[in-house]
Design a protein that fits this description.
By secondary structure, the protein is α+β, with helices and mostly antiparallel strands. Helices cover about 25% and strands about 30% of the residues.
């Protein structure tokens, strides 16, 4: 028996030789919202044989229809009937009518029947039973709280199952559900066009017989099967779009194995799939599959632990582009240490050790070289002001007086627009021209937290030495993070994606075998020049001014016209 499903589904099942009965508990419909009560419309009675059905398929995802005026009842005074409020603008008779057949459906399930439910979120509505009095007011005799899942006791009882409102489209098989099973093979082709409108949670009465089948991206169950209510089985699925083909295969291929007594024509062959009768070679192969799945799961868990360790060890790199305050200062200090500076001092920590409080000083000092670097660190939501970027000058003057020397230089690290993803920020011009000019005049370097992030990642990825990057932090004004062992030799003028070749207008000669580097949005990428052409001819050297064709591993999403190209010189 199908409830709330289209006639096309019945036709497909009947074509397979099944006897199908169609039924309805009433279709929801819209009304004009008001505070009044209205009598429920008549619905078609349940089929005469509905109590004898063995497989019941219910779709809770019915679209709203328009009420049939012919079925609307005019109730006279003193005639008892069921009434419902117009307040919500939606009336769903199935919430009441489902309860009316619940006892019969419970009996079907207990006797070994199968219920297949296409789930939707819980809908409730209050109904009243009574009659119009002499003042045309409804005299209420009793009240009933309707529940969309209340056509089976085990579906409306939290002891068996609890349904939580949720929705989404990201669905996958539960990790413990066998991927080679018939049901998995039936479901997987439909997942891309399936949505869920609720999640399912087992109660204490279904703990033993509960089987999660599908989960959402957060691991919550959106499809499940359970037993324990008599001899029957309940299967609950999300809102599969192509229900016709799914139900056809479900009934033909899966249910004979779940409830063989309902399919006597399948019974003679069903035993061949039982483990007791399986041939030894198949049993061995199934065990190999189980071993592979178990070992793969262990390997994935091992790799995930390694990922967690790596993310934890490198979290400071991301703090450079997302944090402020002490967390940002700590990340900047770790970045300098990663880049090879060994004498990086936390000024606040020194003051604390000396018992000095209430003093406002710079965040970090770097004593590896002369001049000493005085570093001020700021994490801000917008663009840096003069105070943000140039306050380090005040600390330079204080340290000159305190140390009695002038070989002291300032560096401001500004994590600007820190609430935005880094590539969405204005990274080309985070500092105003006037601010950059002022920093130039005062011998102050300006670098963003994102650029420091990029520098640390490039340093690690390309195996740079400390000498390649140490001079970067002693530059004035807006600091470019190009390392000292890079020499710009041109810019990209063309990109031929089909053959993976860039055309570079050279500002210096280029030799085949030279190591090249490109400044990409996040890291510098290096590769050897293994293929070099000029005028479509292979050459060993391309002269200055020529358009050199260079084979590259860069993808179309990485190459931009005007991209600088560098030669990697021998590290100092």
């Amino acid at each position: 028996m199908t409830i709330g499903l289209s006639g096309a589904i019945s036709e497909r099942l009947e074509a397979k030789g099944y006897c199908v009965t169609e039924a309805s508990l009433g279709q929801p419909f819209e009304v004009d919202s008001s505070a009044s009560l209205r009598v429920l419309p008549l619905i078609d009675p349940m089929p005469h044989d509905y109590k004898e059905q063995e497989i019941v398929i219910v779709d809770l995802n019915q679209e709203e229809g328009s009420e049939d005026p012919a079925k609307h009842r005019e109730i006279g005074q003193m005639v008892d009937a069921w009434w419902v409020s117009n307040k919500t603008g939606r009336i769903n008779p199935s919430l009441l009518n489902g309860a009316a057949v619940k006892g019969d459906f419970d009996r079907i399930l207990a006797a070994g029947g199968v219920f297949i439910i296409f789930a939707n979120s819980v809908e409730t509505q209050e109904f009243v039973y009574g009659h119009l009095d002499s003042f045309n007011r409804v005299d209420i005799a009793k009240t009933f709280h309707g529940h969309s899942w209340n056509f089976l006791t085990c579906l409306a009882d939290d002891d068996y199952i609890r349904v939580t409102d949720d929705h989404g489209v990201s669905i996958k098989l539960h990790e413990d559900f066998p991927k080679d099973s018939i049901l998995a093979q039936l479901l997987v082709p439909h997942l891309a066009e399936t949505r869920y409108n609720c999640t399912l949670h087992s109660g204490y009465r279904t703990k033993e017989g509960w089987t999660p089948i599908l989960v959402n991206k957060y691991g919550a169950t959106v499809a499940a099967g359970f037993t324990g209510f008599g001899k029957g089985t309940v299967l609950i699925f999300p809102d599969i779009q192509d229900k016709a083909s799914f139900i056809e295969r479900l009934v033909s291929e899966l249910l004979p194995g779940i409830a063989p007594e309902l399919f006597p024509e399948h019974e003679n062959a069903s035993w061949t799939n039982e483990a007791t009768y399986e041939v030894e070679t198949v049993t061995v192969l199934r065990q190999e599959i189980a071993d592979i799945e178990r070992n793969a799961k262990l390997e994935v868990e091992k790799l995930q632990r390694q990922i967690d360790i790596e993310k934890d060890e490198n979290s400071y790199i991301f703090d450079l582009a997302r944090e402020t305050g002490d967390a940002l200062v700590s990340a900047v200090q770790k970045a300098f240490q990663t880049l090879g500076f060994s004498k990086v001092v936390d000024a606040d920590a020194v003051l604390k050790e000396e018992g000095k409080t209430g003093q406002n000083r710079e965040d970090l000092q770097i004593h590896d070289y002369e001049p000493t670097l005085i570093v001020e660190v700021k994490g801000i939501s917008n663009f840096p002001s003069d105070d943000n970027a140039l306050v380090v000058q005040k600390y330079i003057v204080l340290r000159m007086k305190e140390w009695g020397r002038v070989n002291v230089k300032g560096l401001s690290v500004i994590n600007h627009q820190r609430h935005l993803p880094p590539l969405n920020r204005d990274n080309k011009k985070p500092f105003r021209d006037e601010l950059v000019s002022a920093a130039d005049e005062q011998d102050i370097g300006l670098i963003t937290g994102w650029d420091l992030h990029r520098l640390v990642r490039s340093f690690t990825a390309n195996g740079w030495s400390h000498n390649d990057v140490k001079d970067i932090f002693y530059r004035d004004g807006r600091i470019k993070i190009t390392p000292s062992h890079y020499e710009q030799i041109g810019v990209v003028e063309r990109y031929i994606e089909k053959v993976g070749v860039i055309g570079v207008r050279l500002t210096a000669p280029l030799n085949k075998g030279d190591r090249l580097a490109y400044e990409l949005p996040i890291v510098f990428k290096e590769e050897d020049c293994n293929s070099l052409q000029c005028e479509n001819q292979d050459v060993m050297t391309a002269p200055e001014g020529s358009l050199a064709g260079i084979k590259t591993s860069l993808g179309s999403d990485e190459v931009e016209i005007g991209l600088p190209v560098y030669r990697v010189k021998r590290s100092n």
